[in-house]
Design brief:
- This protein is an alpha/beta fold and 221 residues long.
- It has one domain: Rossmann fold (3-Layer(aba) Sandwich), CATH 3.40.50.620.
- The chain contains 7 helices and 5 strands; from the N terminus they run βαβαβαβααβαα.
- Strands 3-2-1-4-5 form a 5-stranded parallel β-sheet, with helices on both faces.
- Helix 2 links the parallel strand 2 and strand 3.
- The longest helix has 15 residues.
- The protein is globular.
Length: 221
């Protein structure tokens, strides 16, 4: 039987492409979406549609309200920047988000007897988040194999980051090769009152850059 993997699925371009790539490699998928009361909660519905389109074995949307902590434009009453992608860590960084999300995914993976985790982090065309870097992923993987019963028994976990060294254009091309359902995806951090992408936040800009450079029309628009 093919290996089972837990994929963190936000419903965005990157996580959808990563999931589709793993499916194309023959993995069976469990999809985990975190409802952290994010400003762009519209992505939760998109994640559910993507999960259905990919035929995952189970999709869990887990409530984990990070607005209680705040500290980010995605979880507090702080304006989402619209002036373009700038150097440094932006205010849309959610404190320790990928550490928290991967930890939850690790718990499900161990319970489900899966030893593969998948996250669509990208360290080229991205917003400067420290928890998207390869060093973080390597450190988390080492922790996972130290802190779990499965790891202690020699059943090693692997954190897959198939997009880690891709540009956004590369990701768009990779998605096309595996027929990822990008028409169902959502990337915007600050939806309009009409439920449309704002077109100006970092995530919108990076998505548009990727499709433009790939020479492919965005099917979600």
């Amino acid at each position: 039987m093919p290996d089972l993997a837990v994929v963190l699925l936000s419903g965005g371009l990157d996580s959808t492409t990563a999931a589709a790539m793993m499916k194309a490699k023959g993995y069976r998928l469990l999809a985990l979406t975190i409802d952290y009361n994010q400003r762009h909660r519209i992505e939760l519905a998109h994640a559910a549609r993507v999960a259905a389109a990919l035929g995952v074995e189970r999709h869990i949307t887990l409530p984990l309200d990070l607005r209680g902590f705040g500290g980010s434009a995605l979880t507090a009453d702080i304006d989402v920047p619209k002036g373009g992608v700038e150097p440094g860590i932006p205010v849309t960084y959610v404190p320790a988000r990928n550490t928290i999300f991967l930890s939850v995914a690790l718990g499900w993976a161990e319970a489900a007897d899966a030893r593969d985790l998948v996250i669509g982090v990208n360290a080229l065309d991205y917003s400067g988040y420290p928890d998207c870097r390869p060093e973080f992923i390597h450190s988390f993987e080492a922790m996972a194999n130290t802190a779990t019963k499965a790891g202690d028994e020699g059943q090693k976990f692997t954190v897959h980051t198939p997009l880690a060294h891709m540009s956004k254009a590369d990701i768009v091309h990779a998605a096309a090769k595996v027929n990822a359902p990008l028409d169902l995806t959502w990337s915007c951090y600050d939806p309009t009152p009409q439920g449309r992408p704002c077109g100006a936040c970092d995530s919108c800009r990076l998505r548009a850059k990727g499709f433009t450079e790939a020479g492919i029309a965005d099917p979600a628009l």
